[in-house]
Amino acid sequence: MIRVLLADDQPLVRRGLALILAPDPAFEVVGEAEDGARAVALAHELRPDVVVMDIRMPVLDGVRATEELARTLPATRVLALSTFDMDEYVVAALRAGAYGFLPKDVSPEELIAAIHTVHTGEAAVAPRLLTRLISAYVRAPARPRPVTAAPAGLTPRELEIWQLLAAGLDNAEIAADLDISVSTVKNHITGIFTKLGVRDRAQAVIAAYESGLVAVGHGSG
Q: Which of 31, 89, 46 is nearest to 65 (CA)?
């Protein structure tokens, strides 16, 4: 059973999320928080597996609450929520340690799938939505890094995969583009994460834009 803490400043939203999860025996809603500070306190008390965290809340916003949880309770994973699918706070939350992001108008099925994904330690962000967000809100250096200058000891193949990942391709699309297997792509991505010192796909894409490896606006559709 996945233990879930719901954090949103609107009681109606919290109740709606709880009603979505209640019928599914895979979930147990262990608590509700009306602001980020309360979410952090309850997370320490209840030790949920996943916190569904609204980004914009009073007292302590969802970004700072996510940062605190990533630092003090790394086993508790945050799924960020926003009213808008294009929100600069989403990038800040992913940088702070959120494992995924959903706009609040998603279907119940999408919410349930995202919580399962985050619980396994994978990033729950649609690749092309992620690149749209990052290309809109991440500031890249004025002078992009030459693609031949591989940071962190990346091999030429890893550099190539990192660029494709940052352009919004999923693993299957990268495999097709490079004519290699999906399992090979996954192995390379694991190596990329380790060398870059990032935790997941979202942070790897942010790093690509911040390094100048991918130009702002590239892959945003």
A: 89
